[in-house]
Amino acid sequence: MSTDDDNPLTLLVTAHPDTGSLTHHVADRLASALRPRAVEVADLHREQFDPRFTPADRRAYHEGGDYPPDIAREHRRLDRATDLVLVFPVYWWSMPALLKGWIDRVFVNGWAFEYSAASGLRPKLQRLTTHLLPIAGADLRTYQRHAYEQALRTQIEHGIVDYVGSRRGVTAFVHESEQPSAGATAASVARAVRAVSEAVQAGPPPA
Q1: pTM
Q2: What is the CA radius of gyration of the chain?
Q3: C-beta atoms surrounding 57 within 10 Å
Q4: Does the pLDDT value for residue 171 go beyond 70?
Q5: How far apart are the first and last CA of the chain?
Q6: What is d(CA 80, CA 10) in angstroms, rounded to the nearest whole number?
């Protein structure tokens, strides 16, 4: 993974069909907070990313190369980034299917990791720091009472981020996204954006 050390790139990935949604608002706020740092926004809906795992994806997964053109493009985009931020609405205590399909197709054998029966697992994304900014409809107490936050963190932070060797960044929830109080929503957004932007600007801890 190659980056420009003088102007490190942060890639924000969003998955929401409504450009007027809170998800897009949060991504825009975060992009503004990060500038003049280089920022690229990957709007998977606008770009019409195809999340379906095809026979070509399966062959590339098993062989570790010859990726479909749209996936090779995503790899090039991520190769330029030092930080990845996933900004998404929480659907059924997880990420939307579109974002999950992006992970399924992009974070594949031979690029994000290498695995064989002989040598086992070798993660390959150690230079990338991954941050999560989930937009949740329920309040913090509900997440704590039902352990929803821990479930989401386990599947994404441990199941994906750790598996490919990426550094864990900040996970900052926006809770009660559908509450009637605009002021409370704005405060929650401001806290989450500040947490992620400060973590990105601080950079990774020394090795």
Answers
A1: 0.92
A2: 17
A3: 19
A4: yes
A5: 17
A6: 9
